[in-house]
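I am still learning, so would you mind making up any protein sequence you like and the tokens describing how it folds?
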Amino acid sequence: MHSLNTIVGRGEGTGRKGFTLIELLVVIGIIALLISLLLPALGSWRKIGRKMVCTTQMKQMGVATHSYTADFRDKLYSFTWVSGRAQTADAERALISDCIDVCVTPAGLPAASNDTRTSMAQAVSIMRRRTGEDRTLMPLIENWIPHVLYTHLVLQDYIDQRLPAKLVICPEDSTRLSWLDRNRFRSEFLAQEDPTTQWRWRFSSSYIHVTTMYCPDGTLPGQPQRTVIQGPAHNTYFVPPANASSNGLFGRRVFSDIAFPSNKVQMYDGQDRHSAKQQYFFADKRARQPLLMFDQSVNDLATKDANHGWRPDAPRSMPSPGVISQPNSNAQAWAQQGNVTIINYDPNPRYGESRFSQAGTGPANAPYTGVFAWTRGGLKGSDFVLGQINTAQWQ
């Protein structure tokens, strides 16, 4: 008992002193300071992580591109249904019957009377088959050229991917990511749009293919239009007339057409979503983004370092020697004397396009030149490192 009492007595005599209010506030202040220092770093790491995901996705599509060319005798992927063939003994006849037969021209001709319409039917067919959703919600779309913004569907069909898929959406593209939810897309987006035509946007991609991947490089003077050219706004295009004479123009490009695979862009994002707090239009000279090249590499490159490009409807026209020797960043000189495609940026936030809302920002080095979207020489040209090729004697 004596020993126990001694031990208890010692315990009672060694009580601990608690924190004072000032000490507690100091500790809280230190913790708050550490959090304020760590949060920006964590946010930065999250952005780096999303950029790595974006790069990996583009790399996967690059590898799939080369796999496709190996399986289909050097062909670059694009819509393959053509007039005549789709109407006869096609292995997918049962799948496309409701896409082709129910659609007729104003003159009463079958929709498959030209390659443009059969490509439209193929795009709708892929979206129907790859979703397993109600087909009545995906009617055939008239007056639509799917090649420009929906060529990725062919690759997704090739790799047997269910749609819609994150593979073709940049992790920073919050607008398209929200569209993956069908109910949300229909209630928030289609509630203000025409559901018979705009339903396709749910299957769109952040990434854009260069036009010469699926159409001829250029149109020579005095000849009918053979290629896609830029329209009055950044998201509008002029295409060859949708009639029988346009058959055979699209979907015939092969990998061997490419002269400089490591310097020629295959795919790019319409917005720079990674390099700054605000998003820049891809042709803005402040933009910098991962770019998929035709050799499967994905390089983080600045638009200001890209060649300015050309006008595919005037391929022989070359800038003066003085202009061609000037730095790539001198967009004004190229716009005035270089005969390049000029892009008028008219953003729509509903489609995830930025208006440069941060104070003090606006178009840099305006006007915007076509850069890698309209490469001089098409697939035979170069976007980076090498200079513009000479197309004065273009044949």
